[in-house]
Amino acid sequence: GNSVTQMEGPVTLSEEAFLTINCTYTATGYPSLFWYVQYPGEGLQLLLKATKADDKGSNKGFEATYRKETTSFHLEKGSVQVSDSAVYFCALSDRGTALIFGKGTTLSVSS
Amino acid sequence: NAGVMQNPRHLVRRRGQEARLRCSPMKGHSHVYWYRQLPEEGLKFMVYLQKENIIDESGMPKERFSAEFPKEGPSILRIQQVVRGDSAAYFCASSAEQGKNTEAFFGQGTRLTVV
Predict the structure, then answer these.
(1) How confident is the model at residue B39, as a pLDDT?
(2) Which of B55, B91, B100 sits opposite A43 (nearest CB)?
(3) Which residue, among B64, B57, B91, has the nearest Cα to B79 in the 3D structure?
(4) What pLDDT does residue A28 have?
(5) Is some CB atom of chain B closer than 8 A to the CB atom of A53?
(6) Do B100 and A96 touch (CB under 8 A)?
């Protein structure tokens, strides 16, 4: 079946450090891939998405490239801020009826 | 345009009681999804509904859980005879259409605590 695996957290960084959160997926079809962010006590917000191989999603300085050959969708940001502290979820949608999420990675950024 | 509204935000129930969670989708959205988030876990799909119809309930426990999305009013997730293992955050999402490229908008969730 379809699944998403993300790196275990927590990830602790200093402000302005480079961020990578790894995400790999297993899918029978050609899924769309997403990164969602959850701030404390809040729901999930879509951060970025990519709908086909080699697409790059980007938003608020975050980027992720849909790599079909490695079945990956790693999240990167060149310089993190304290306000980026949150839980990040990688997800896929294959048939369009529901999202399949990874377990989430907690990011903590200190000044 | 208000976002997805869930209420209550926090709900405490004793074992054996019923829990009712409400979700009003974004205006113009007719597709609703319910997810459950257990501590230290990602979100797990429970059920997908369109107006008056359950489309996919493959993630819903077979007993005690039910969902509806009536023609008028919010979607309701109902848990009967709650047990401690039902304690979790329940999130609702809505979308304007179905499709793997469609963005789903999430509510702030209802945090259910069973004591």
Answers:
(1) 80
(2) B91
(3) B64
(4) 84
(5) no
(6) yes
Put simply, whether A105 touches B (Cβ < 8 Å) is no
Measured distance CA(A20)–CA(A15) in Å, rounded: 14
For residues B22 and B57, give the distance between their C-alpha atoms in angstroms, rounded to a whole number: 17
Q: Measuring CA to CA, how many Å separate A88 from each of A20, A48, B17?
A: 11, 11, 34
Q: Do the chains contact at A103 and B41, CB–CB below 8 Å?
A: yes
Q: Which residues of B touch A97 (CB under 8 A)?
A: 48, 55-56, 98
CA pair distance A30, A65, nearest whole angstrom: 15
Query: H-helix or E-strand containing B59?
Result: none
Which of A33, A44, A47 would you mutate first to test chain B, the one with the most B CBs within 10 A? Answer: A44
**pLDDT score at B99:** 74
Residue of A nearest to B45 (CA): A98
Among candidate residues A59, A2, A54, A52, the one with its CA nearest the CA of residue A30: A52
Question: What digits encode the pLDDT tens for the residues B44-73?
Answer: 999 999 988 999 999 999 999 999 999 889
Average pLDDT on B7-16 reads: 97
